[in-house]
Structure formats: C-alpha cells, structure tokens
Amino acid sequence: MLILGIETSCDETAASVIRGNAPHSERILSNIILSQTAEHLPYGGVVPEIAARAHLDYLPQVIENALQTANITLDDLEAIAVTGGPGLIGGVLVGVMAAKSIAMIKQIPFLAVNHLEGHALTPRLTDDVQFPYLLLLASGGHCQFLEVLGVGNFRFLGSTIDDAAGEAIDKVAKMLGYDYPGGPIVEKLAMMGDPNRFPLPLPLKGRPGCDLSFSGLKTAARQVIEAHSPLCEKDIADIAASFQRTIVKSLCEKARNAIHLTESKITHFVVAGGVAANQLLRHHLTEVCKQNGLTLLAPPLKLCTDNAAMIAWAGFEHLRLGHQDSLDFAPRPRWPLAERNSQQTGMQI
Ligand code: KG4
Ligand code: ZN
After folding, report:
1. Residue 7 CB less than 6 A away from ligand 1
2. Which residues have CB less than 5 Å away from ligand 2 (the ion)?
3. Are 331 and 100 in contact (CB under 8 A)?
4. Which ligand has an atom closest to residue 113 CA?
5. Which residues make beta-bridge pairs with 16?
6. pLDDT of residue 347
7. Distance between CA atoms of 169 and 183, rounded to whole angstroms?
8. How many A from CA of 182 to the centre of ligand 2?
C-alpha cells in the first residue's frame, strides 16, 4: 500500500512516500524535508506567519520531489496522511488543505494524523516493535512519558509542568549566542566541555512520579551565564556540558520512575522526538533500560526530528484498522495524545 505523508506543523516542510505493507527496511521510498531555518533566522525563533507562507510556497515542490524520488505519480497513491495537529495552525492548515485536495481529486482515503502519534509510532515503522511499550516523547514543544497500548491508545504517566526539554535547550543555546535549533549545537559544544565546572540544580529531584520541569534549570543556566559574562569559548563549552548533563540526568531519573509506573507488561522503552537525537541521552537511557531488563529503541536520527515518513506510517497504522477521516476534518492546534487522569492535577498535557 502506497501512502503519501505530509508534515507542515512547525518549520519543516516535509513529504514522504511509504509502502506500508513492505518489510520494515524497505518501507520508506522517499523522505523529503525542507527546513525553513534560513527564513526564521533573522527573528531568533519560528515566526508562525512566515512558516505558513513558506509551507505554501514549498509544499508543491516537496510533494513532487517525494513522488519522483519514490518513482511514482499521484495516480499510484492509495491513501494520504497529513499532520492534523498539534502545531502552528497556519502551517497545519496548508498541509491539511493540500492533502484534502489530493484525496478528493484522486478519490483515496484521507487520514489526519496527530503529530505526536507520528513520533510515538516511529519505532514500529523502523523496527516493528510490538505494543505495549513505554515512550518518552521529548521534542521542542512536548516532553512526556506515555504507555503506548495500541494505535490511538495511550496512557498518560507524566509530563513537563513548564518548558519542554527541547525548548529549554533552545533557549539556553540562544543565551549562549546560538540560533535555533539549539540541540545539535549544545551537544557539539558539550563534547568539549567540563560538565563538573558549573553544578546546576537537578529539577524535581527525588520527587515521586515522572513529571518533569526545565524552567528552573534554564534560569539557573542564565544566572551562571550572567555571572561569567563575557564568556570565553571554554566557559561556553563548560556551561553547555553541565546543562546537557543535568537535562539527561533528570530525564533518566524520571524514566526510572516511569518504568515503575507502567501497568502493562512492557519489554521496550522508546525515546522519540527531536531530543532523542542526543547521544548522551541515548547512552544513559540504555543503562537505565539494562538495569530494568528493557530494550531501548531510538529511531535513526533523521526519523527522530520532524519528518513526513512518520506521518505516513501513523496514517497506515490507522488505515489498516479501518479508520479514515472525513474531508470535514478541522485542524487542531492543540491535540493531546492522552489526558492526565483526575487523580493527577487535572491539567491537560
Ligand atoms: O521533534 P522536533 O523535530 O520538533 C518538534 O516537534 O518540536 O524536535 C525539535 C527539538 C528542538 O528543540 C531541538 O533543539 C531538539 O529537538 N534537538 C536536540 C537535538 N537535536 C534536536 N536536542 C538535544 N540534542 C540533539 N542532538
Ligand atoms: Zn515533532
């Protein structure tokens, strides 16, 4: 089954063709990602209106490229899946309208995919991992632990109570003078730094449950930066190393708690989202998993950050269960995968 996926929820215009029922190593026929980093650079962050306009400009050629790379035409498609939310509404609208048009003209099923579910199901695209599994979803906008019980079936375990990990990393990178996305550069700087020079407080240390918090850590990093400015190269590397280590430590401490909070019989711990590209995090989570008799699964780097192959795959997972969406689907700027239950704080993710 040939499915076109479209992703336009943030600052990447992406399209991908997958063959859903092929063996996992042969599923992705194309995975085109056009980053808008240059457009947003002068503004120091993603500007929603610029993103929406850029998606409008780029999407047709990105789709064309995805079809050509897969060596197919629109006529060969058997379904179309698009990010329906959560995300920047202007961009989501552009993708959804394009997908609806193709679905209508070609008379093929239309699937509106939750972007977070795209990340969450990626290890099934790449490795056929079986349900249930534990998921840490850590990206620029989201940071949460979920028990993945099935397609569209998630149990909430905990999430950040303020900033997402990626968001905190991006903000500290900015304080250090680096552009978005901060993750890759902080990781690179940290390799040359001393993580012991600036001890930073471990967020929610020793607290039960697996909620996370990164806002206080970000403030602590700001105080160190201000106290030592102007920073030399070594200062920057040492701050990046201390900050990265503290984030990783916190995610690992809460991952241990999350493992103990799962109710189903899990064998795999999956880390997904852009922050899952971080090698130090992968290394330490591997240790946590070993200690708990679990296998860590992290998608390949290109499939950790935003892409359309994961959207096409999530669409395929729904389609083979007989689901599809109506062309009346309205894009959803907020679309939680699972809600906190009433014994928790009652907050939405
Ligand atoms: O999933 P994603 O591509 O987009 C969102 O949906 O947010 O995640 C982007 C986030 C950014 O905050 C970026 O700085 C972070 O992932 N990131 C990393 C790394 N690569 C990307 N964080 C830590 N280490 C990395 N190597
Ligand atoms: Zn994402």
Report:
1. no
2. 139, 306
3. no
4. 2
5. 5, 31
6. 37
7. 6
8. 15
Q: Which of 88, 49, 109 is nearest to 331 (CA)?
A: 88
Q: Which ligand is nearest to the CA of 140?
A: 1
Identify the CA nearest to 256 among candidates 206, 219, 309, 314. Answer: 206
Question: Distance between CA atoms of 279 and 271, rounded to whole angstroms?
Answer: 12
What's the CA-to-centroid distance between 75 and ligand 1, angstroms?
35
| Ligand 1 center–CA 313 separation, angstroms | 20
Q: How far is the CA of 183 from the centre of ligand 1 (A)?
A: 6
d(CA 279, CA 58): 31
Q: Is the CB of 182 under 6 A from ligand 1?
A: yes
Q: Name the phi and psi angles at 79, rounded to 5.
A: -165, 165
Taking residue 35's Cβ as centre, other Cβ atoms within 10 Å add up to 15
CB 132 within 8 A of CB 147: yes
> What six digits make up the tokens of 221?
């990093």
pLDDT at 341: 63
Q: Is 166 in the pocket of ligand 1 (CB under 6 A)?
A: yes
Q: Token pair for residue 44?
A: 């120091």
CA of 141 to the centre of ligand 2 (A): 8
Question: What pLDDT, on the 0 to 100 scale, is given for residue 108?
Answer: 98
- Neighbour-count burial of 293, counting CB atoms closer than 10 A to its CB (0-12 exposed, 13-18 middle, 19+ buried): exposed
**Residue numbers in the chain where pLDDT is lower than 70:** 341-349
Token pair, residue 112, equals: 């509106």
Cα–Cα distance, 339 to 349 (Å, whole number): 6
User: 48-55 long-range CB contacts below 8 Å, 24 or more apart?
Assistant: 48/88, 48/89, 48/90, 48/91, 49/90, 51/10, 51/11, 51/88, 51/90, 51/91, 52/88, 52/90, 52/91, 52/93, 52/94, 53/90, 54/11, 54/13, 55/8, 55/13, 55/90, 55/91, 55/94, 55/95
For ligand 1, whether the C-beta of 277 sits within 6 Å is: yes
Phi, psi of 34 (to 5 degrees): -110, 115
Closest residue by Cα to atom 19, ligand 1, is 183
pTM: 0.93
Q: Over the Cα atoms of the chain, what is R_g? A: 20
Smallest CA-to-CA distance from 158 within 225, 102, 204 is with 204
Is 170 touching ligand 1 by the criterion CB < 6 Å?
yes
